[in-house]
TrEMBL record:
It is an enzyme of class 3 (hydrolase). HAMAP family: LspA. The lineage of its organism: Bacteria, Pseudomonadati, Verrucomicrobiota, Opitutia, Puniceicoccales. Its EC number is 3.4.23.36. The keyword Membrane applies. This is Lipoprotein signal peptidase. The chain crosses the membrane at residues 74-93, 105-124, 144-165.
Length: 175
């Protein structure tokens, strides 16, 4: 394979981050242009767009806080924290094992998601959430593509960490 002067691992990470970021921003731009803000909030008359009755809806709501609406009103500082997190990942990248393919994809998902939500915080003053799922009487907090990228990226990282931990314990027992 010819040398390109680039690190394929970081290329995987950057392409994954770019895909998540583009999908996130395109979907949020479409939502903002086509569905009235505040859909599905108490007292609002426009119903959500029903994808699967009693299960999956498309809405347009804003989250000024973090996951599940915690830390409402701190959107600016959460945006700054997101930027610092991405910088921290870059600075400490060697400590995260980013030479491993699975972790390159994991951190690509994570970084793309973080940047998607950071852009929203400074563009709209809140994160645009639009995917709304119901499980019986329980309504899962609405989320977006960036949130999904962050969640899947973190889940992969945790699973890999648990597998590594188990393998290390097994190796120690076999000594």
């Amino acid at each position: 394979m010819p040398k390109c002067g680039c690190n394929l691992g970081y290329l995987r990470l950057l392409v994954t981050a770019a895909i998540v970021l583009v999908l996130d921003q395109v979907s949020k731009t479409w939502i903002a242009a086509n569905i009235d803000f505040g859909t599905y909030q108490v007292g609002y008359t426009q119903p959500p767009y029903t994808v699967i009755e009693n299960f999956f809806y498309i809405v347009h709501i804003g989250n000024e806080g973090a996951a599940w609406g915690i830390m409402q009103g701190y959107g600016f500082w959460l945006g700054i924290l997101g930027i610092l997190a991405v910088i921290g990942i870059f600075v400490f990248r060697k400590h995260f094992g980013l030479d491993r393919t699975v972790l390159q994809y994991s951190f690509g998902l994570l970084i793309g998601g973080i940047l998607g939500n950071v852009i929203d915080r400074f563009r709209f003053g809140h994160v645009v959430d639009f995917l709304d799922f119901h499980f019986g009487t329980y309504r899962y907090p609405s989320f977006n593509v960036a949130d999904a990228g962050i969640t899947v990226g973190v889940a992969i990282y945790l699973i890999v960490g648990l597998i590594d931990w188990r393998n290390e314990k097994k190796a120690l027992r076999e000594k």
